[in-house]
Amino acid sequence: MEIVSLLLSTLLLRPYVFIFLGLHLLAGGLQLGLKRIIVFTLLAYLIAFTSEYSSTRNGIPYGPYIYTGETHGKELYISNVPFMDSLSYSFLAYFSYSLALLLVSQVSRKGWRFELIAPPWHSRGVLFLAATLMMLQDVVVDPVALRGSQWFLGQIFYYPDEGIYFGVPLSNFLGWFVVGLAIIYCFQRLDQKMGWAMPWAENALMGPACYFVNMLFILFVTFYIGEYLLGLVSLAIFGPLFYLTLRKVLHTP
Asked: For position 79, what pLDDT does the model report?
């Protein structure tokens, strides 16, 4: 009963996480199928939790950081790691994977319906592009999350040694790239072994759209808390990615 109570309080405290999780399950269910997106979500959570549990103890793979425990009793923790934090990797990884597939695949359009033709579900190119896109999300998100005391996130973590990128150490971004690789690679291998992949994929735009909506949300928070230089740097990351994606969509026959 205590876990149920903490899950409910987590939902009330972090509704935006569960909104993105719902979008992730909807978009992934339509594009990958229900079985594949559930497997993706569980794999991503387990890998993410393992990485966070490790890094908060020995600094691998992100470098050392510490969860403050400020919200203990208000939301669900697994050991010393907030449940919602590891859970967010699931949708961040899927949104990145979906965007990578869109950027490298042949796309057909029927009205407002966009379909991927023979998407390279298991290619190395998609693997490395998706991991890079996931890392770039964190480049935008992590400095703002570090300033959680200035908005409704709260000060849930800190780095013992201040990093050079707006307080974030560069090792953190390397860790996100490695963890992104691990999540996508494990899903690709299991998906290939089980023969679940389809030769086409509908709903090609919802996952990429969510990728940019999440970035826009963080950009809004960045400027809202007065971090204008950080906001401009983040816009310089967001802008080219959005342009390339929009160009791909608009030039789809």
From this structure: 93
Cα 90 to Cα 214: distance, rounded to the nearest angstrom: 13
Distance in angstroms (rounded) separating the CA atoms of residues 240 and 236: 7
Summarised one tens digit per residue, pLDDT across range 143-168 is 999 999 999 999 999 999 999 999 99
**Domain that includes residue 104, residue range:** 2-250
H or E stretch covering 77: strand 77-78
Q: What tokens were used for 226?
A: 């007065």
pTM for the full predicted model: 0.96
DSSP 218-251: HHHHHHHTT-HHHHHHHHHHHHHHHHHHHHHHHT
Q: How many domains does the chain contain in total? A: 1
Is 94 in contact with 28 (CB distance < 8 Å)?
Answer: yes
